[in-house]
Structures are given as structure tokens and as C-alpha cells.
Write a structure and sequence with these properties.
Length: 361
């Protein structure tokens, strides 16, 4: 069967309107190419019968294509020429190709009138450059002076692309552009529509592009947000007072690019954790004192507290072990959302006994 090998317009593309718009479809077949093919064209300003701004079955119009001079070659270009100069900027044109070879085999890979099965679609618009907002890098819970290991951070990068999200090739987010040894890069690419990290010190949990109102973009949506969930790993170096500075770079398919640094979002890294001074001791028998408590031997007690990252006061959003010790006896408990309670018994021996605790995770 004849097969479409390539077409000079992408599945989603943009072109400047012209009275002589040229569509070139390269077809392969053996032993001879089809005598003729038909180009089915949909124009938003003229053929959108149900006004849904998208091509549907029954809305395509047939145009003839010029066949190659030699049909006994393995490959040949079929050319369609039509006028789209009547369309307004932003209007769309879609098309697919049909036909048969001399043996009656239907053309394969030429698209169809089924939803989103067009061979190509383009918007009437000149090529433009992506633009990153000057305040376009925002942590969802507010500005972050510190990041910590094991924590999940939501990052939003806002930008615009005049030719739509389909024209974006790559978005690069370097969380530490000023650190040559490891820029902590996160890269979104159009082929996978996912992010991956170039750094061994970062884990990308989720990554997606949405419109500014939070909906899934169509191929020609202009105002966009890249949402990333990222987790710094415990292996990340602590650079002390050195602040890491983010930078975002966006490339479109034509090689146009925009790049913005965000000095206002500089941050430091720390893995230091602690139990806060707000400790609550509960005793079933006896009484609390300024120094702790006086209780009978072997009587039940409970110690409650909060674990935080020392530099920022953030509670860990992962479970964290806490060791509580008295008279050589160790009670291991788990802090959930930073909060823990340890149940233990007073020592059997009379005397003064120190009750101590430490972060175990």
C-alpha cells in the first residue's frame, strides 16, 4: 500500500497566510506511485459548520494535488496549493490526504476526518518568541529561603508562547544556575511531555504544563504554567552561606529562546533537624515540677513534641523517627507531620533520672 513518508507541515504548526499556500506530501509505494491523491482541507473561517473551532467529519473540502512527473520511483512528492489569505490571524487550517494506488490499496498514514487524526494543522500566525514572566518562578507556599531534603516542593514557572504550547521544544529550570559543578537542572521536553533531572541530588515527583486557569492546554494555548513537584535528596551538598540562584530558559521549535534569572528566589540548603523546646510531659501518677516530674517507680509517662528543620522551622512531610531515652532504656517512636508522642515507664530504681530525646531520621 502507498504510505505517507513525510509532510512539510507539522501535526500542529503555524504559518503566515498566503494566496498560494503549498502543502507537500511525500509518499512511498512499489512498484509505482498512485496516479493521484486528494487533499482534504478544513478552514476554520469557512468550514467550521458547528462553530466549535475544531475540524469534524463532514467539514473537510476536497482539493486536487499535483502528482510527481515520474510514478515509477519509490518516493514522490504530491503538491497541493490553496488560498488561506481570507482567514484571520489565529484561525486554523487542518488537512489530510486520501487516495489509492493502481492495485486498489488505500493510502496509509495520511490522516482522516476523525477527531485529532488530521495529517497536519496550522494556525495563521507569524513565528514568535516565548516570553518568561519576570516574576515567573514561584514556590507554591511562598518564597523559600531554605530547602530541605526529603521535602516535596511545588514550583510554578509561568510563561507565554505566541504560537501555543505545541511550539515549545524545551523548558530548562536550573535551581542553582550560579553553581557550575551542579546547576540542579530540571528539563521538560515536548516529546515525552515530562521532566527529568540532570542532577543526582534532585527527584522529580510530577511535572506538567497547564493553562493559567489550571486546565489542560490545547495545542495553541498561549499563557501557560509549568508545574513541578521536586524533592531535594539527602545527598545534596550543604554550601553554607552560599545561596543558589534559579534560572529558567525556554526554547521553541524554531530555535527562538528566552532566559530569565531570579535573584529574588535565591535559597540555601540545610539538612539540620531538631526537636523544638515546646515539650509536653504527661504523668499518670505523681506531679510535674519545674525540673520535670516526681513519679512513683514504674509509673506510665508520655512525652510529646515537634520535629522541625532547624533553619526554617518547616515540619518534615515524611515520617521521622525520634529516640526517647531514660535510665538506659530507649523508646523509639515516629513523628507524623512532625508531631510525636512516646509512651514509656519510669525507672524501677529510686533517684534522679535524665529524660533525653533525639532526632533519629
Amino acid at each position: 500500500a502507498p504510505v505517507v513518508a513525510s509532510v512539510n507541515v507539522r501535526h500542529f504548526d503555524h504559518l503566515v497566510s498566503s494566496a498560494y499556500q503549498v502543502i507537500v506530501v511525500n509518499v512511498t509505494d512499489q512498484p509505482v506511485l498512485p496516479d493521484s491523491l486528494q487533499l482534504m482541507i478544513w478552514r476554520e473561517w469557512a468550514d467550521d459548520l458547528n462553530n466549535d473551532d475544531w475540524p469534524n467529519e463532514g467539514e473537510y473540502i476536497m482539493w486536487n494535488m499535483n502528482s510527481p512527473m515520474l510514478l515509477d520511483n519509490s518516493f514522490g512528492n504530491y503538491v497541493g496549493i490553496f488560498d488561506d489569505s481570507q482567514g484571520f490571524p489565529g484561525d486554523k487550517v487542518a488537512g489530510y490526504v486520501t487516495g489509492k494506488d493502481k492495485s486498489g490499496h488505500e493510502l496509509m498514514g495520511g490522516g482522516s476526518a476523525s477527531p485529532d487524526d488530521h495529517l497536519f494543522m496550522y494556525q495563521l500566525k507569524a513565528d514568535g518568541t516565548p516570553v518568561i514572566d519576570t516574576d515567573g518562578l514561584v514556590w507554591e507556599s511562598g518564597r523559600k529561603a531554605w530547602l530541605h531534603p526529603g521535602q516535596t516542593y511545588d514550583l510554578n514557572v509561568s510563561f507565554s508562547e505566541p504560537n501555543g504550547v505545541s511550539d515549545i521544544s524545551t523548558v530548562e529550570v536550573a535551581l542553582a544556575d550560579n553553581i557550575v559543578s551542579d546547576r540542579l537542572e530540571l528539563i521538560w521536553n515536548s516529546e515525552s511531555r515530562q521532566c527529568h533531572s540532570e542532577s543526582e541530588h534532585l527527584e522529580v515527583k510530577t511535572c506538567r504544563i497547564l493553562t493559567t486557569d489550571g486546565s489542560v492546554p490545547d495545542p495553541y494555548s498561549i499563557d501557560l504554567i509549568l508545574q513541578i513537584e521536586v524533592i531535594p535528596k539527602w545527598t545534596m551538598p550543604d554550601l553554607g552561606d552560599t545561596r543558589r540562584e534559579p534560572m529558567v530558559t525556554i526554547y521553541d521549535r524554531a530555535g527562538n529562546t528566552d532566559s530569565v534569572n531570579f535573584p529574588q528566589n535565591r535559597w540555601r540548603f540545610s539538612a539540620e533537624m531538631m526537636v523544638t523546646e515546646e515539650i509536653d510531659l504527661w504523668v499518670e501518677k505523681g506531679q510535674l515540677t519545674d525540673e520535670g516530674a516526681r513519679v512513683p517507680p514504674s509509673s506510665p509517662m508520655e512525652l510529646s513534641g515537634v520535629v522541625i528543620f532547624s533553619q526554617s522551622g518547616e515540619r518534615p512531610n515524611f515520617d521521622c523517627e525520634v529516640n526517647v531515652m531514660i535510665n538506659g532504656y530507649n523508646e523509639l517512636t515516629t513523628a507524623v507531620d512532625g508531631m510525636f508522642t512516646a509512651s514509656l515507664n519510669a525507672p524501677v530504681q529510686n533517684g534522679r533520672h535524665a529524660l533525653t530525646w533525639s532526632v533519629g531520621c
